């Protein structure tokens, strides 16, 4: 509870600074409307069916994308993290692929995937896989060998060691990777909606329309705030899971 | 008696960036089925390394370990280990009970597993802590969880690395008797590394005395004490006292012979030189400081 | 050595497969690797000898982009690690700042471009801001996680010996968190290449990203692919350099290779 | 085509009015003024009258639209001529029998492509633009072409000018904080910038050599045109009506507020371009020529084979 | 003798999700300057918790600890601890020497630090391992590094939690003598938790016998043995043997009295009930299995 009030205080502080900044004559209110203006616009939007449909489209795509990224990256990370040969063999390819920006892939992706939601979900997954993958691999590197040895000595097979020792022990850090990936997914989804259009609606499309039509910054920021809130909600959910599933790590780590 | 476990010409050298370190020089011994062998030897001589090679976690650089007549290449079946670093060998995300159940998953159903775990935890006096997590336990309790886990597994070969180091004297006695009882009941072969000479005599059917680093066998003493041992009467017996003195003497004498002693000598000399050099460096630095400040 | 062969054999194999596939498909969107290599050659490596055979394009577009990339990543690393360690060690600070950071993290940079434009007037500054804002998060979050997970016994040991703050942070928290921080740095490094391209969507007349996007719009697919390959090469090289540092920094780790599958080896 | 039910009818331009082969059309659109006519035609039911159901799909410029066309994700798309020609010249759509142009969409008029500066700028005449930085929306596109052509017509060497890419919505801010010296804008941003910061016109980029230059139109693939001649013809007819009606301000203004999210005031101020009702090869050829001049095309390019002449109107 | 350390009415209860656990019931004792007090008590009774409260790592839920007359709120100055979980308390990224030097950085220059570390490592017999990393050492060697670190720090108050648990008998003797020597030289006040009754008698000026969980003081025995103690003669003396027996008796007797015993009884009953229930569950499940398979 106290954590929540503190968090709200933090956000409130940010809003106050934004409000002051927006109200000061430093920047024209047109480009940076203060939260009071954006808030009114936002409240209006929340009653707007079309806007809500956009939001729902984005949230659904987000959930799918996060699920897919984790589903792909965690097992892959377990394999790459535990079989050095595979890791070395794929390193060149992986390091080559990672820096390729989604933006550059858009036309090719459209060609292959079409303009539907598959496009943005694929691009989001492409971007979000990396933090999970790397966090999984690094967590495995930090795995206490004695835990593995203990399991091996009691006749535990490789696969089970992977899933009942390596995975739980790296779970805290993997979950951090998933939290990172969740917001990465959101950012890419909205950006692709924003840059590629199509993609079956979504928050990004709303922002693009608001921007490219006539530069309605109040609408843009309202949409952005909603993106932030979605990100916060997803992150909070994952943090809850983290607190429940891996309570042990915070105690063994943070006891002081 | 055919050998259950046999260690032949075993040697192990750890490779490190700054030169290799030979932990085990040359070890050969055998252990019969149902035997309890205690291993004693100075700190850092290579006892834990020996257990690691027997359990197949480390491939020895020389020689061979055979179990039931088969060379140990991977981790053999039917083996349990209580590690010296017990606290790190417990899974922090599992409760005490789940930790004990962990190795049983492969072979037993849910309820059988729970019963075994409950039984083993009762043996080591931790029934009431079964729901706690390892970090909520004291050091000695953690060690007992590790012991319970190994016992619940009912291995054919049980390796224990200083298993009672962190428990109080009274509990230690109880655990020693527990080990003897379990061993007798299930005909388990046991190898116990211990620093407590009394314990080695009390527990062992045989005592293996190792030399200082790198380890080699100094003596392999049979313990001829009557079978149902008792903490009070056995420890008071003359045979016990005599053996205890013998082991203590061997451990001191065993601190080096021949080649090994020569090598240790060299090591010590170089170490002494390092300490000497450090000291010289310090005086120099201090002299400089003094010169600078005056 | 074998690793080297392993790695490049797989890579070369994939390139060959790609060549064959594109040759069969004969699709203008997917030119053959040989064609791409040719484009790359004319774009960047056909310059005069006194410029090390680098073309003007390299000096006009590649180097400025690289500069911004490294600067952006460096700034993000600095902010991410220091802020992350501070937040990781202070539960209260994390409670205050956590939701706000999550909120900021979820904001897509393209939506913020107008705001950045206002706050950072000049082009390079704005691009830097975009890169920093985009790549900060993996470093920050992983640093928080790393700093938080310092083993309790180690922090108690430091407390007992009254280790001064600075030594505690530099000598205990940072080394303990180092593996996690490096995971973040590695993710971020590649991400900064991505954001370099994104940042060149607006307000530039030079840069790898802007070139790539122009090629894309002009349907000059070999050039566009050459750009993608260049990004890949840069990513690989930068990553390799970072790995060298990482190996050095984490050399204390017992046998980095000792993972579940290799216990017996 | 497998799914198109290949009729193998001769498609020599004017197909006889008949049943449309495909009733549901996915149409790529941008949320800008240029496509007002489509929205008019939808609103007034012109497509419905022809038996067509148009599903607008938001796209982002030609680079995204043409792959969409190629893989059949879009049936018809709006796009600027430069993109269509460049794509055709690079033979990007060779797998689908090339690109075909079916309707003209938008054509420049004076006051529509303006190079603006801030009110306190030292740039007073086109000549002052020499050596300055100008914001344009996309490199190598109609904006750059017309800007270069008109600069040259005003004796300014286009090579001395630095172009920087900014999306239209961001140009006003870039002008105001002097990130750029001038900005190449279109409506409704011109009206907005004039109203908000008192931006001043320096040069009309749709004048002189570029007076009335065609901007954008509607295209499809050769394959689609061949397999669906009646559909294309029906589309052409319906859109032509929309184009005609789009010239009428009172019809268009409320639509702008709706689909382009322009506020009412701005909507009442914007200058519209021309909405041509015919597709004319000579006119479009001007764009191709400009592209050749400024190096966007390597060879001479004939636009005529790309056109699918309208029928029945 | 004025008290250097005084513990008054100390109590500590750990809070956990599933109920609280009282580790220390009510402890009061004082330690004079330069005194060496040994603390013995059954496993899990709260000894480590006691050391944590004294070192200011844990704020006790009840009572007070005062050091030099000041209440301990944070971690006091001039204090060193050898943790029971020694392997976790070493910094894996520092070499042995650097580990020992680590706490000295605050107060000493580079060369003085190096000299101190070299000296302490020589004391514990690890001169030649100074360049190694903790994971390259055996368990006993790691423990000796932790001891060396604490000794090199030269604290006014030294807290040691089973510091010699992992070293062999011979090394243990040497380390005991080392501790006595260092204590005498630097007039250090020392609190040693140990499970070895002999050790407590040999080392201590006083022995504090604690009851089982939750801890309370069962006895506070002064050790009246002649000052320069000797591993052989001291241990053979009658006073030594008598005291040893006394401590052993107290530890057994101390296993509960009055209220505490009643509470333990209840605990044990509930634990027995759990084990019983588990067993019943198992028979039920087995019966079902049989029914299902037939
Ligand atoms: N991973 C390793 N790398 C390098 N050297 C090692 C490694 N593990 C152990 N050693 C060295 O091998 C020797 C034997 O170690 P081992 O752990 O087997 O000793 P031990 O007999 O178990 O000692 P203790 O009784 O102190 O636990 C030691 O000198 C140690 O420094
Ligand atoms: N963090 C914790 N949370 C909950 N309970 C704890 C915690 N730490 C210790 N305990 C409990 O407190 C009691 C005392 O623990 P402590 O570690 O002080 O025992 P100890 O006397 O040091 O035992 P040992 O000799 O086995 O090390 C134990 O029953 C233990 O379960
Ligand atoms: Mg050992
Ligand atoms: Mg303890």
UniProtKB/TrEMBL annotation, chain A:
Keyword Cell membrane tagged: yes
Keywords, ordered alphabetically: Cell membrane, Membrane, Transmembrane, Transmembrane helix, Transport
Pfam families: BPD_transp_1
GO cellular component: plasma membrane
Domain named ABC transmembrane type-1: residues: 55-238
Membrane topology summary: Multi-pass membrane protein
Compartments (UniProt record): Cell membrane
Transmembrane segments: 55-80, 92-115, 121-140, 161-180, 186-207, 219-238
Biological process (GO), any one: transmembrane transport
UniProt-listed InterPro entries: MetI-like, MetI-like_sf
Family to which the UniProt record says this protein belongs: Belongs to the binding-protein-dependent transport system permease family.
Protein known as: ABC-type transporter, permease subunit
Protein's organism: Saccharothrix espanaensis (strain ATCC 51144 / DSM 44229 / JCM 9112 / NBRC 15066 / NRRL 15764)
Automatic annotation (TrEMBL), chains B, E:
Entry keyword Transport: yes
UniProt entry keywords in alphabetical sequence: ATP-binding, Nucleotide-binding, Transport
Domain of life, source organism: Bacteria
UniProt cross-references to InterPro entries, sorted A to Z: AAA+_ATPase (IPR003593), ABC_transporter-like_ATP-bd (IPR003439), ABC_transporter-like_CS (IPR017871), ABC_transporter_ATP-bind (IPR050166), P-loop_NTPase (IPR027417)
Segments crossing the lipid bilayer: none
PROSITE patterns: ABC_TRANSPORTER_1, ABC_TRANSPORTER_2
Domain ABC transporter: 5-237
Biased composition (Basic and acidic residues): 258-294
Disordered: annotated segments: 256-294
GO MF entry, a single one: ATP binding
PANTHER family: ALIPHATIC SULFONATES IMPORT ATP-BINDING PROTEIN SSUB (PTHR42788:SF13), TAURINE IMPORT ATP-BINDING PROTEIN-RELATED (PTHR42788)
Protein name per the record: ABC-type transporter
TrEMBL record, chain C:
Membrane topology per record: Multi-pass membrane protein
Residues of the ABC transmembrane type-1 domain: 62-242
A family per Pfam: BPD_transp_1
Keyword annotations: Cell membrane, Membrane, Transmembrane, Transmembrane helix, Transport
Annotated compartments: Cell membrane
Transmembrane regions: 7-25, 70-92, 112-139, 185-204, 224-245
The keyword Cell membrane belongs to this UniProt entry's keyword annotation: yes
Any one GO cellular component localisation term in the record: plasma membrane
Keyword Transport in record: yes
GO biological process terms on file: transmembrane transport
Family stated for the protein in its record: Belongs to the binding-protein-dependent transport system permease family.
UniProt name for this protein: ABC-type transporter, permease subunit
Organism of origin: Saccharothrix espanaensis (strain ATCC 51144 / DSM 44229 / JCM 9112 / NBRC 15066 / NRRL 15764)
């Amino acid at each position: 509870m106290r954590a929540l009030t503190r968090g709200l205080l933090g956000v409130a502080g940010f809003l106050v600074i934004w409000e002051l900044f927006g109200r000061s004559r430093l920047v024209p209110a047109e480009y940076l409307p203060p939260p009071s203006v954006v808030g009114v616009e936002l409240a209006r939007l929340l009653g707007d069916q079309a806007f809500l449909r956009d939001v729902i489209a984005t949230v659904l795509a987000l959930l799918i994308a996060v699920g897919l990224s984790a589903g792909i990256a965690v097992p892959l990370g377990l394999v790459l993290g535990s079989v050095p040969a595979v890791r070395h063999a794929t390193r060149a390819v992986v390091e080559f692929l990672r820096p390729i920006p989604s933006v550059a892939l858009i036309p090719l992706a459209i060609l292959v995937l079409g303009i539907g939601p598959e496009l943005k979900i694929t691009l989001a997954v492409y971007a979000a896989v990396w933090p999970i993958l790397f966090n999984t691999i690094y967590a495995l590197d930090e795995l206490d060998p004695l835990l593995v040895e203990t399991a091996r000595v009691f006749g535990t097979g490789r696969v089970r060691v992977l899933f009942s020792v390596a995975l739980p022990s790296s779970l805290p850090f993997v979950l951090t990777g998933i939290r990172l990936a969740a917001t990465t997914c959101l950012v890419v989804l909205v950006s692709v909606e924003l840059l590629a259009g199509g993609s079956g609606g979504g928050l990004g499309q709303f922002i693009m329309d608001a921007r490219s039509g006539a530069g309605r910054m109040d609408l843009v920021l309202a949409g952005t705030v909603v993106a932030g809130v979605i990100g916060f909600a997803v992150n909070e959910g994952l943090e809850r899971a983290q607190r429940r599933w891996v309570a042990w790590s915070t105690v063994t780590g943070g006891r002081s | 008696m055919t050998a259950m476990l046999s260690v032949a010409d075993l040697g192990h050298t750890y490779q490190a960036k700054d030169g290799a370190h030979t932990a085990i020089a040359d070890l050969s011994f055998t252990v019969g089925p149902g035997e309890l062998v205690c291993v004693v030897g100075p700190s850092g001589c290579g006892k834990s390394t020996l257990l690691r090679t027997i359990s197949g976690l480390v491939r020895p650089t020389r020689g061979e370990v055979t179990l039931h007549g088969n060379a140990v290449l991977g981790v053999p079946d039917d083996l349990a280990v209580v590690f010296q670093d017990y606290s790190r060998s417990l899974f922090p995300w599992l409760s005490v009970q789940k930790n004990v159940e962990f190795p049983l998953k492969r072979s037993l159903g849910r309820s059988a597993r729970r019963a075994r775990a409950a039984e083993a935890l009762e043996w080591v006096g931790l029934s009431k802590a079964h729901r706690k997590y390892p970090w909520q336990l004291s050091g000695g309790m953690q060690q007992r969880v590790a012991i319970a886990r190994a016992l619940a597994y009912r291995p054919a070969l049980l390796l224990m690395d200083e298993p009672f180091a962190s428990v109080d004297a009274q509990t230690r006695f109880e655990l020693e008797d527990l080990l003897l009882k379990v061993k007798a009941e299930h005909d388990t072969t046991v190898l116990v590394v211990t620093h407590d000479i009394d314990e080695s005599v009390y527990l062992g059917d045989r005592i293996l005395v190792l030399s200082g680093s790198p380890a080699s066998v100094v003596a392999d003493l049979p313990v001829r004490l009557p079978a149902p041992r008792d903490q009070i009467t056995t420890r008071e017996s003359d045979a016990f006292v005599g053996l205890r003195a013998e082991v203590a003497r061997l451990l001191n004498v065993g601190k080096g012979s021949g080649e090994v002693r020569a090598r240790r000598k060299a090591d010590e000399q170089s170490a002494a030189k390092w300490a000497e050099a450090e000291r010289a460096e310090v005086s120099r630095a201090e002299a400089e400081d003094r010169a600078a400040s005056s | 050595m074998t690793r080297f062969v392993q790695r490049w054999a797989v890579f070369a194999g994939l390139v060959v497969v790609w060549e064959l596939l594109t040759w069969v498909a004969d699709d203008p969107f997917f030119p053959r690797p040989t064609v791409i290599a040719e484009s790359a050659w004319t774009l960047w490596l056909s310059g005069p000898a006194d410029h090390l055979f680098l073309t003007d394009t390299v000096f006009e577009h590649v180097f400025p982009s690289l500069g911004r990339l490294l600067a952006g990543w460096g700034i993000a690393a600095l902010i991410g690690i220091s802020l992350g360690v501070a937040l990781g060690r202070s539960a209260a600070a994390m409670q205050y700042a956590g939701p706000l950071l999550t909120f900021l993290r979820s904001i897509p940079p393209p939506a913020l471009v107008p705001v950045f434009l206002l706050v950072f007037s000049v082009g390079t500054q704005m691009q830097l801001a975009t890169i920093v804002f985009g790549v900060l998060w993996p470093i920050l979050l992983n640093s928080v996680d790393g700093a938080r997970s310092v083993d309790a016994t180690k922090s108690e040991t430091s407390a007992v010996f009254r280790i001064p703050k600075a030594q505690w942070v530099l000598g205990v928290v940072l080394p303990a968190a180092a593996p996690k921080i490096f995971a973040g740095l590695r993710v971020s490094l590649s991400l900064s290449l991505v954001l370099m391209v994104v940042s060149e969507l607006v307000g530039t007349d030079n840069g790898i990203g802007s070139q790539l996007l122009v090629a894309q719009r002009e349907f000059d697919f070999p050039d566009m692919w050459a750009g993608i390959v260049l990004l890949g090469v840069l990513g690989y090289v930068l990553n390799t350099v970072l790995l060298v540092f990482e190996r050095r920094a984490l050399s204390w780790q017992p046998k980095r290779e000792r993972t579940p599958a290799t216990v017996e080896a | 085509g497998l799914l198109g039910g290949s009729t193998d009818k001769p498609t020599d331009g004017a197909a006889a009015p008949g049943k449309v082969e495909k009733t549901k059309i996915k149409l790529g659109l941008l949320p800008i003024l240029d496509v007002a006519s489509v929205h008019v035609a939808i609103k007034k039911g012109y497509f419905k009258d022809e038996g067509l159901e148009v599903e607008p799909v938001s796209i982002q410029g030609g680079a995204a639209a043409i792959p969409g066309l190629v893989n059949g994700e879009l049936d018809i798309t709006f796009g600027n001529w430069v993109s269509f020609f460049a794509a055709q010249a690079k033979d990007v759509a060779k797998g689908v029998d090339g690109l075909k142009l079916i309707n003209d969409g938008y054509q420049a008029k004076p006051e529509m492509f303006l190079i603006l500066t801030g009110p306190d700028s030292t740039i007073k005449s086109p000549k002052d633009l020499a050596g300055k930085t100008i914001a344009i929306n996309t490199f190598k596109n109609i904006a750059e072409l017309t800007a270069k052509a008109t600069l040259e017509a005003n004796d300014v060497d286009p090579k001395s000018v630095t172009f920087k890419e900014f999306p239209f919505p961001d140009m006003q801010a870039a002008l105001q904080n002097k990130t750029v010296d001038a900005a190449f804008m279109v409506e409704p941003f011109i009206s907005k910038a004039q109203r908000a910061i008192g931006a001043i016109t320096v040069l009309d980029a749709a004048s002189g050599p570029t007076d009335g230059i065609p901007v954008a139109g509607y295209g499809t693939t050769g394959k689609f045109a061949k397999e669906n001649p009646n559909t294309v013809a029906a589309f052409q007819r319906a859109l032509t009506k929309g184009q005609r009606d789009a010239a009428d301000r009172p019809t268009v203004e409320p639509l702008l507020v709706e689909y382009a999210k322009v506020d009412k005031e701005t909507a009442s101020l914007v200058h519209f371009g021309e909405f041509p009702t015919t597709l004319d090869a000579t006119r479009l050829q001007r764009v191709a020529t400009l592209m050749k001049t400024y190096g966007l095309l390597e060879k001479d390019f004939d636009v005529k084979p790309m056109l699918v002449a309208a029928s029945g109107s």
